From TrEMBL:
<protein>
    <submittedName>
        <fullName>Succinyl-CoA transferase</fullName>
        <ecNumber>2.8.3.-</ecNumber>
    </submittedName>
</protein>
<feature type="domain" description="N-acetyltransferase">
    <location>
        <begin position="16"/>
        <end position="187"/>
    </location>
</feature>
<dbReference type="GO" id="GO:0016740">
    <property type="term" value="F:transferase activity"/>
</dbReference>
<dbReference type="InterPro" id="IPR000182">
    <property type="entry name" value="GNAT_dom"/>
</dbReference>
<dbReference type="InterPro" id="IPR051908">
    <property type="entry name" value="Ribosomal_N-acetyltransferase"/>
</dbReference>
<dbReference type="Pfam" id="PF13302">
    <property type="entry name" value="Acetyltransf_3"/>
</dbReference>
<keyword id="KW-0808">Transferase</keyword>
<dbReference type="InterPro" id="IPR016181">
    <property type="entry name" value="Acyl_CoA_acyltransferase"/>
</dbReference>
Length: 212
């Protein structure tokens, strides 16, 4: 699609393909959301979108991606990738930037279908977008945060070399909760072997960056 080059953008790792989802990918991603992302009684998200029934979770998944596409500007963008493992869509990995051309700071967020947990996939897909951030986009920092009880996300973050960067208070389901913030500087980033970015050049102007 000439006017939306993101559909050609992809990142590959030894096991995964990350790509901006097609409509068919969104259907499959909705299936993963419907199947379940986390155990009952636990909420890793500030907005509790996974509290709905399976059909509602699937619909909210598609709507989230539609909103990200429609709201993207050079000064405020979010790229939400479908993550494929052995040809199957298994989750989503996002990277976001606000005034990125000035701040050179990118945030990340993700979720993974519950039956794919515990296989190191979360680490590999985060490493993929860190490669995009630092090697592809010239980021100076990557930031992320997670609730203190989201042990899996915190483990991925620490494994990839982030440093603690303070805390933030939130209200989650009417209760005060703490998120731990983290920051990874470009000089502390360790490149993961075997990651390749394809067709990034045409996307750069839409992200506020020079394509030359």
């Amino acid at each position: 699609m000439r006017n939306w080059p993101f559909f050609d953008l992809s990142i590959t790792t030894p096991r995964l393909v990350l790509r901006v989802p097609s409509l068919e990918d969104l259907d499959e991603l909705g299936d993963r959301a419907a199947e379940g992302i986390h155990e009952d009684g636990f909420m890793p998200f500030l907005f509790p979108w996974t509290d709905g029934d399976p059909a509602e979770r699937a619909r909210r998944t598609a709507q989230y991606h539609f909103r990200a596409w429609g709201a993207l500007t050079a000064d405020d963008w979010a790229l939400e990738f479908a993550v494929l493992y052995e040809g199957q869509v298994i989750g989503t990995q996002g990277i976001q930037g606000k005034d990125f051309a000035v701040t050179r700071e990118a945030g990340t967020g993700s979720w993974l279908g519950r039956r794919f947990h515990g296989q190191g996939i979360g680490t590999e897909m985060r490493a993929a977008v860190l490669h995009l951030a630092f090697a592809g986009l010239g980021a100076r920092h990557a930031v992320t945060e997670a609730f203190e009880d989201n042990h899996a996300s915190l483990a991925v973050t620490r494994k990839l070399g982030y440093r603690e960067d303070g805390i933030r208070m939130h209200a989650r389901k009417g209760e005060p909760v703490v998120t731990q913030r983290f920051r990874l500087a470009a000089e502390d980033w360790s490149e993961t072997p075997g990651i390749e970015i394809r067709n990034l050049g045409p996307c750069l102007p839409l992200l506020g960056l020079d394509a030359s």
